[in-house]
Amino acid sequence: MDKNRVKEILNSTKSIEVQYENKPVWIEELDDTRNVAKVRRLDNGMHLTVSVNDLHETGTVH
Questions:
Q1: Whole-number Å distance between alpha carbons of 17 and 53
Q2: Rounded to an integer, what distance in angstroms lies between the CA atom of residue 58 and that of residue 18?
Q3: Which of 4, 5, 32, 39 would be a feasible disulfide site paired with 25, CB 3.0-4.6 Å?
Q4: What does the UniProt keyword field contain (predicted)?
Q5: Neighbour count for residue 1 (Cβ, 10 Å)
Q6: CATH number of this structure's domain 3-57
């Protein structure tokens, strides 16, 4: 995923499913100078800082 899409998801009023390492995550913040995002895994609540390139949108909108 690119940082522009991450910005769109963060600003969206819809819940758009995103995964990191095949696990669903919630994007909490974007650091576009470092091209990383702070995310929270939905299965265990763990917070991670990951490259936006490692995030994948599943296409599911809630």
A1: 16
A2: 6
A3: 39
A4: Sporulation
A5: 18
A6: 2.30.30
